[in-house]
Amino acid sequence: MLAQATFIDVPGPTVSAERRHAPSWAEARQLAYHCAGPLPPLNLRPADAIGRTLTANITASQDLPHYASSAMDGWAINGNGPWVMTTAGLPLSPGEASVIATGGLIPAGASAVLRKESGVVVDGAGGARQLTLKPDAKLGETLPGRHIRPAGEEASAGEVLIPAGTLLNPAHIALAAVAGSDELQVQRKPSVAVVLTGSEVVTSGKPAPGQVRDAFGPQLDTVISQLGGEPRGQIRIGDSYDEWLAALAGGQSGPLPDVTITTGGTGKSGTDHFRDAIAALGGRLLLDGIAMRPGHPAVMAELPDGRFVIGLPGNPLAAMMALMTLGEPLLAALGNRPLQSAVLMTSGADIDPDPGRTRLMPCTLVHDLVFPASHTGPGMMRGLAWADGYMAVPPAGAAAGTPVQVLPLPWTTSFSSGVRTRVPMV
After folding, report:
1. How many CB atoms lie within 10 A of CB 169?
2. What pLDDT is stored for residue 426 in this prediction?
3. Model confidence pLDDT, tens digit, residues 400-416
């Protein structure tokens, strides 16, 4: 179900009608998060589940360990010595012993394990070999239960070993395997395809006048992974309507993705085909523009089969801010993760107001203060490349020394210092 956003109507002659009817940055994030629900879980082999979120408890299928075993290399013994040596693995009568290795099954009748450092085997009467304690053996070496790992020492059958909701690491996987799990039920990650548009975009060499280098192709798959999605490949198209229609209909090979991200083509000129292609496919616009800068032409839609499409503006920084605003919440919702909250940090600079829209500004952290980065025009990537996060500056601006909302970038998941108060975005 699509969440109903309450759009802010900011009066005043400096605010355009289009901006007054667009959702705010915070509303857009909430809408993107609440328009989708978690994808169903899937079952994976343990080795393939590392880095996934468990959706069903892992329990011990039997006692761990499921049999009594030796904690030492040495001899299984019955009673106090000396002991007559017998065949390994056979039941032991009182006064008998047999060789056993670490992890070996404790034979019936064994009362303890004598470690090899504490005993010696000698020839006895009648050719029988005999095990005796060494003179320097520690006290208590033959006490009942000594050096025996009892069944169920680590866990009892049915005990929960890894609860649902755990982000699985390699040690979890090893524990699951020991517990007898051949498959693990984990949260499915949303699959994401990328449609790169623009006949003026080149992927190598120096661009000629009128051409631009591709700023999206090299980075988007990695960013998608950092946001919790599974990249499903990229296709590159020109600027024609037919190419747009084919790409959004499922031009990629293999299963259709849960989310498609497009770059460019979200304006409202005759060469921008996002909206027309969505309409032709029977889809609906969930959001058409956001009262923020940069990134205000961002669009989000849903197709009849439940797939989502996010249209990013063509300018690189504007596109990345739009991806943080819409893509991060949508992928979190589909992946059954909470929406990341902003933190309040102290602005180190005066930031002018921008009536009617939130300004998203890459920022750096210096001595617990956040400062807007330089080189942050809509088409620039230099400032974002060195930023610690981005500031969400309200329409009224921010004065130096006052709190401002800040979020990390996907590749800077935390701030290096400073006391921060976690707050909801409003």
Report:
1. 11
2. 37
3. 999 999 999 998 866 54
Q: Which helix (H) or strand (E) holds 100?
A: strand 96-100
Distances (CA, A) of 76 to 137, 184, 311, 352: 16, 38, 71, 81
Beta strand ranges found along 153-215 (DSSP E): 160-162, 184-186, 191-196, 201-202, 212-213
Look at strands 308-312 and 299-302 and give their pairing.
antiparallel
HEC profile for 114-165? EEHHHEEEEECHHHCEEEEECCCCCCCCCCCCCCEECCCCCECCCCEEECCC
What tokens were used for 164? Answer: 């649902």
Integer Cα distance of 318 and 325 in angstroms: 11
Query: What token pair was written down for 227?
Result: 């946001």
- Per mean pLDDT, which range of 16-20, 61-65, 145-149 is the poorest? 16-20
Write down how long the chain is.
426
Residue labelled with tokens 């990229």: 234
- For 348-402, strand residue ranges (E) read 358-366, 369-372, 389-393
First to last CA, the chain: 21
pLDDT of residue 252: 61
DSSP-assigned letters across all residues of 27-50: HHHHHHHHT--PPPPEEE-GGG-T
For residues 310 and 108, give the distance between their C-alpha atoms in angstroms, rounded to a whole number.
Answer: 67
Q: Cα separation of 71 and 154, whole Å?
A: 13
pLDDT in tens, 69-84: 999 999 999 998 899 9
Query: Residue 234: enclosing H or E segment and its boundaries?
Result: strand 230-236
Tokens encoding 316: 């690189």
